[in-house]
Task: structure prediction
Amino acid sequence: MALSAMSSVASTPAMSDFSSAGTPASSSLASSISSLRDLDKALVECLIGELNLVEIRDTLISVAQAAGEMMLNADPSVDTSETKKNSSDRVTATDKAVEAMVKACLNTAYPDFEFLGEESFKVSQKLTDAPTFVCDPIDGTLNFIHGFPNTAISLALTVGRKPVVGVVFNPFRRELYTAIKGQGAYLQKPNGTVHRLPIRQNPDPLTGLNGCLVAVEWGSERSGPNWDLRTNTTRKLLSAKSVGGAMCHSIRSSGSAALDFCYVAAGQMDLFWEGGCWIWDICAGWTILEEAGGLVASANPGDWDPSLEGRLYLAVRGAPSGQKEVVEELWSCMEGKEFVFAK
Ligand code: LIP
Result:
């Protein structure tokens, strides 16, 4: 049975479920809602259990490798790019061709699954509970156009609107990051060796932003309140303690949110703070990060349970202590301001 159908059955309780003798109606309602959530969760777990996630991961790896060949064979100097929203938001013919190939292959292998891809996305499309492939054919398009070798295909599977499989492949550096929920995260290096993530199996505690390498991306929106928040917070992160800053080790901007998530999962960067990118940029990286012991909070203060589609992400590497403290410290650098994005 499709998960959406299963969920709709599960969320149609009998009226008697909402009241019981001697219990205040509101507390009974709250406990019924919470049992429905538990039931929904159980149904999702049940569906995940029905899927062969190893086979799905291997299919995503094959498709990512085929996409990698297309990227390597494309000549960025003749692959002209088009402007999307503005001159820094671009798409190439290769982005479109890769997504068409990925969509066709996955549709043949898993005809019942849904597909959400950057280049075919329509604003009305929302992630559903059904198994869904989420695809960014080329994350780091500007890097691709410039020939800067930090570009990847990002492929994920979600079930119940949560990521369960992630594959991120950078063909230029032949680095392949993979994860299945509950089964760990891995990096396959160009020489074929496979390493469980994080690279340091016993990572150091996080002891504050002062000791952190922080990834920040710039996006293509370069004016207005979101831009002011991005630049002011970055300035605060970098500035010396003597002038009220956090004096983090430094800032890095790799140009690919998918790879930023993987670098945090690997422990090569400590945090990645990003408002404005989209589900396809981070969905695969999310599972890879969580399976490496990392956590995802919101880029906006106060939200420890951000949604995949919320466009607000703060990724923190695995550590025996200090993860929550470093999130709070970064949020405090935002000085009470919040990003606002259309979803
Ligand atoms: C890009 C991201 C980049 C972010 C941009 C954009 P694209 O994805 O990965 O890090 O700053 O806003 O979303 O467009 O190259 O797939």
Remarks:
- The two ends are 29 Å apart (CA to CA).
- The chain has nine helices and 14 strands.
